[in-house]
Design brief:
Order of helices and strands: HHEEEEEEEEEEEEEEEEEEEEEEH
Structural class: mainly beta
Number of domains: 1
Number of strands: 22
CATH class: Mainly Beta
């Protein structure tokens, strides 16, 4: 069945079948697919008050919905793209991440940087013994899914837990645990907490970011836009920032399918190592937390390091004061905005 027939078939299915069919295209094409959501005319102004659920969208990808609203897709299998046949396949990342009105916020295999991939975490410099690897460009080292730790759904949250390995050749050099907790959407936005823990296996692992830029760590690549607004605690940022210490950064724009402006903020938890970390922001569509930054950091075998973040998804372009208020709620453990 060709693509046009597949989409036509989806249009004739009921809502549940259509969601699965369109969601499955992600695995086939390696590209984002906008799953059905409410039109802008019917935007909720109160919490959805519906249950979360996990459903596979392919044998490589697991989706999360809140009622009829898609939230994200976690890709545990290796994803490739027909549009970038020479690009490295990638796994263990989140894409698409959806906005409150069903718009796709993230990008995968973008033409300007084919190694970028939705919401992910990777380092351009990893040294083990005398050998150096590049997880950012996936040279010599790769992620491998190990097992699900949790796929829990409740009325007030959904929790995804994953254990991965970093493999250099066939040897596991790092154990990784990923915890993603999604809170119910409201008129104010949706909060998605991402907690990451890494533990070297039997040898020290040294990480560091890109020289003069500091990227290397949690990274959020946004989808195509014609307008981009980056906001940091001091206000609107007209220039790209390099090796800049921030507690949070926001990128908003006219993202595909939205019909108006929306975006997401990355918050850094105050218990984050080296708080506040250095960042790189790019108006082409990137928010990159740099930990440990440009200076190498060696992790002894068996000793874990954890980093905690919140992704705050919102409509419009909030001012710095509004974002700071949402950040304070996260920093102090208060109510989710």
């Amino acid at each position: 069945m060709n693509l046009s027939n597949l989409i036509f078939s989806a249009s004739k299915c009921n809502a549940f079948s259509r969601r699965l069919l369109l969601g499955g295209l992600i695995g086939i094409l390696g590209q984002p697919v906008s799953l059905p959501a409410q039109s802008p005319e019917t935007k909720p102004t109160v919490p959805y008050q519906t249950r979360f659920r996990f459903e596979p969208v392919s044998e490589k990808s697991l989706g999360l919905w809140e009622g009829e609203h898609p939230v994200f897709v976690y890709n545990h299998g290796v994803i490739s793209s027909r549009s970038a046949p020479n690009a490295q396949g990638r796994s263990s990342y989140i894409h698409p991440v959806y906005g409150l009105d069903g718009e796709v916020l993230t990008d995968d295999f973008p033409k300007d940087h084919v190694n970028h991939r939705g919401l992910h975490w990777a380092w351009p410099h990893i040294k083990i013994g005398e050998q150096e690897y590049d997880l950012w460009s996936m040279r010599g080292i790769r992620y491998e899914f190990q097992r699900w730790l949790a796929r829990e759904t409740h009325t007030n949250k959904a929790v995804l837990g994953v254990e991965n390995g970093w493999l250099a050749g066939e040897k596991e050099v790092m154990r990784e645990k990923v915890w993603v907790t999604v809170h119910p959407a409201s008129s104010g936005g949706r909060a998605m907490d991402v907690d990451l823990t890494w533990t070297p296996t039997d040898r020290p692992v040294t990480l560091w970011g890109a020289e003069g830029k500091s990227y290397g760590g949690l990274t959020l690549r946004f989808g195509p836009r014609s307008k981009t607004i980056i906001t940091v605690p001091t206000g609107r940022a007209s220039d790209d920032l390099l090796v800049t210490r921030l507690t949070w950064a926001d990128l908003s724009g006219d993202l595909k399918g939205a019909g108006e402006l929306s975006g997401a903020t990355v918050f850094v938890h105050p218990e984050h190592p080296g708080y506040p970390p250095t960042w790189m922001t790019r108006h082409y569509g990137l928010l990159a937390v740099g930990w440990p930054g440009v200076a190498p950091h060696t992790m002894p075998p068996g000793k874990s390091v954890s980093c905690r973040y919140r992704i705050w998804i919102h409509r419009g372009v909030p001012e710095a004061a509004e974002i700071q208020k949402a950040y304070e709620a996260y920093r102090t453990g208060g109510n989710v905005p």
